[in-house]
Amino acid sequence: MKQTLLTIALLIMAGCAASLPPLKTVDKIDIKRFMGPWHVIACIPTFIETEAYNAVETYALDPDGTIDTVFTFRKGSFDGPPKRYNPRGFIVDAVNNSTWGMQFIWPIKAEYLITHLNEDYTQTVIGRNKRDYVWIMARTPHIPEGYYQRLVKDLENQGYDVSKLRKVPQRWPNDGSRP
Question: Which CATH entry fits the domain spanning 23-167: 3.40.50.2300, 2.30.30.140, 3.40.830.10, 2.40.128.20?
Answer without folding.
Answer: 2.40.128.20
